[in-house]
## 1
Amino acid sequence: MYNIEVPDDEILKKIETPLMHNFVKISSKEDPTKFCIMPQHFADNYLERIKNMEIFEDDIWVVTFPKCGTTWTQEMTWMIGHNLDYKTSLEVQLDERFPFVEAGGLTTLIPVDTFEKTKNMPRPRYIKSHLPLFLLPDQLWTVKPKIVYVARNPKDTAVSWYHHHRNLHGYQGTKADFIEAFGKDLVLFSPMNNHVIDFWNIRFQQNILFLFFEDMKRNLSQEVKKVMKFMEKDYSQDKIDKLCVHLSFDSIKNNKMVNKEGDIKYLMETTGREYNPQNYTFIRKGKVGGYKKELTVEENDILDDYIKKAEFEIEYQF
């Protein structure tokens, strides 16, 4: 079903981290243009189990390329699906309510089998994944549960993914190397282009809702209403307004059930680094166009070329 090989490119070694290393290229035997960069640990322990996972019609999935507003969308989707249950949302960690199915395959330092945890959740299960379409469970396309997909412009995504690697994964390399690797489709979960295009191409299917991070930033109430309709829920405007306050950037960033503060502390201390919340937060800036202050001319050119290479019909907002 898959070919698994180590890409022959020096840049791959440069972007390895204490948490994420031994990267391999997993490609489809039927269509070698479909591939994904993942740790060997995932290929050995999670790949086949996820592909053969039993899916239920009442599952709710949020799927994104990393750093595209995943956590934000998870909290929005969970709240809408659970009748605006603020009490639970403020007492139970999001990862418990809405687990990341392949997380345990990314590093041996995660002490939980996240596949088993997700598989055995009480229904309806709310499930997060960053996997590309071709690595997701086969039954997603026959059972057809609801899937919310979120895209973001690649420049902000790449910059945010770089900061995530540097602060969470212990990346010690340069931003230039990371952006080069991103442009070569050699960072974790790459390629972004294929990830987005594959879901864009099925966006009109009844069980798919395709959103943009930038639309959520511009008019959150409008996007909340889209998710409500998709999930067959109906709330008054007053309740929508209250939910938008709960989902505001400052609220999410400071919400200890959502901002992954505990995960950051664990990962940093496990790899011998001092945790200081003043230096980095998982929900960092959440801006549209923040890349303009961070990318060099050369890095910006790499990402311009990357976007052009995909021949998108998608018009990203920058």
Note: The first helix runs from residue 10 to 14.
## 2
Amino acid sequence: MKEHQGDLCSRYIKIFIVVSCYWVVSIATVFVNKTLLSSDSVSLDAPLFITWFQCVVSFTICFTLSKTGGIPGVFNFPKGSPWNLEVVKKVIPLSIMFTLMIATNNMCLKYVGVAFYYIGRSLTTVFNVLLSWLLLRQSTSLRCVLCCTFIIFGFYLGVDQENLLGSFSLLGTIYGVIGSFMLSLYSIFTKKVLPSVNQEVWLLSYYNNAYSIILFLPLIVINGEVGVLVQYTGFDSTFFWVQMVIGGVCGFAIGYVTSLQIKVTSPLTHNISGTAKACAQTVLATQWYNETKNYLWWSSNLIVLGSSAMYARFKQIEMEENSRKPVPEEKKSLV
């Protein structure tokens, strides 16, 4: 009994540490990126270049881990090369979605405040339902559709109140909506591409970052950032490069702690943890930047947060119910 209690206690401690790491890394990543994208200390109006550099850092870390085989005693990094022609053909469409996803996410963060960032990107769940029906022909229960309706209402209310407070950015919100759409699209197509990399999430991340380094280059040119980079005078600053490297490390770390949290808990717990983290992040941002929000603005956050949590719970219940359904005799040979 004592051994069982000790094992249970150590498991809870491990879960607490992992969830805490996820919260710290995730919130820190948002604040670091906001500093890089729109602070006077960096003052570089080249968001796509900054995002590209973060991909370079993530790729460098993945490349190093692939050569060393991972971190001894922590995890093993799967073997694979992103320069295999067959791999490129199968993964590059997903990498295009990945590039557009992280680009629009950072563009959104550049123009909106950290407090509004969660609301600006809150339509991911809605797009998940819509794209699952359009692309996969998967129906959604009425209660999940109602949750999506409340999320849309919360998004609209948040945009309306942000506008009344004078801090609304139409461009940032548009980027947020596009980012939500690309995240949903990326999530759906990830399931199709994972078998091509032996179901290895780390290998897929390695390949995505490798290809994104190339894919970002024309986007940087199209966005007119070459001239900005040529005229920028801060490249000789050690402080600038330290911030850039920290941003890249945070970008890599968030992928690791997210996977780790799902591994030691469950996808539902991860969603609930992410929802609670978003709430804490919003409160922290309003305090950090000395922002004052009204009652309806906070209500919009609560509506989106609550509806997202309820949607995750309903989907878990449906998955459990489907797993308990008996398989018809004529289909058993096909399963």
Note: Confidence is low (pLDDT under 50) at residues 331-335.
